[in-house]
Amino acid sequence: MNTNHETKKTSVCVIVGAGSGNGLALAKRFTAQGSTVVLLARNKVKLDKLTAKENSLKAIHSYSCDATNPEIVKAVFDQIYLEHGIITTLIYNAGNAVFDRVTDASIKTLEQAWKTNVQGLLSCAQQVIPAMKVCSEKASIIVIGATASVKGSASFLSFSSAKGGQRNMAESMARDLGPQGIHVAYVVIDGVIDTPMTRSFLKNKTDDFFLSADAIADTVFHLTSQDKSAWTFQADIRPLAEQW
Q1: Mind listing the pLDDT tens digit for each residue in 140-171?
Q2: What is the CB neighbour count within 10 angstroms for residue 102?
Q3: If you write DSSP's letter for every residue of 29-88 in order, what string do you get?
Q4: Please, which residues have CB within 8 angstroms of residue 149's CB and are 6 or more apart in sequence?
Q5: Domain ranges within the chain, ordered by starting residue
Q6: I want to staple 170 with a disulfide (CB 3.0 to 4.6 A). Which of 99, 131, 186, 220 is the partner?
């Protein structure tokens, strides 16, 4: 990537793995702050339908991107760079939670979990780091984790393996990139995010059981705004009713 491209005045935030929960909430939060927001998902048609329903997201840019394919990742990020300028914030929200145990887990499932959560993060981060190192704006890479990032539950063998690896990768990145001016932070979301789908599955749960996607977005935005003298690496967030 050519890092001599002139930085545009508006900060550029790329959200990888955008959907109806965190993705849209993050898009609204960063758009409201004046950032150019770019959403990436495998299914661009579905993504465009979601953003079309939100008046505040009319100016959002979306691209189809399979984070598990390094060649596609490079091509998409090169296009974003040319069309919007240097990416100052990367939020990696891609994930693929699956239920499996050691007795029934497959190599294919394990491999796919790692490709999405670990390989995908590496591929996307490598596309933005060179330009972030030389840009004059605050630069942040925020990785969205889960309870499985710090706890290997019996029924989440592949997912917890990949999420734990992702968290360790993010910590390695933070130690390496922090002194170079790039803030890397990891957000452990411990609980169920409030979406129409989760509400339909958990109809007997009260509001206190769920995490607000907008509140999660507020936390993520705060991380990108922190002064370098007091950077957070890991932020654990959970609803007040969550047991831990």
Answers
A1: 999 999 999 999 999 999 999 999 999 999 99
A2: 8
A3: HHHHTT-EEEEEES-HHHHHHHHHT-GGGTT-EEEE--TT-HHHHHHHHHHHHHHH----
A4: 160, 163, 164, 166, 167, 186, 188
A5: 12-237
A6: 186
pTM: 0.93
Q: CA-CA distance, 6 to 223, in Å (whole number)?
A: 26
CB 89 within 8 A of CB 129: no
| CA 80 to centroid of chain Cα atoms | 17
What CATH number does the domain located at 12-237 have? 3.40.50.720
Largest Cα–Cα distance in the chain? 55
CA distance 59 to 62: 10
CA-angle at 107, arms to 102 and 110, nearest 5°: 75
212's CB contacts (< 8 A; 6+ apart) are 194
How far, in Å, CA of 201 to CA of 167, rounded?
Answer: 28
Give every CB contact of residue 181 below 8 A, 6+ residues apart in sequence: 132, 133, 139, 228
Residues 6+ apart with CB under 8 A from 165: 114, 117, 118
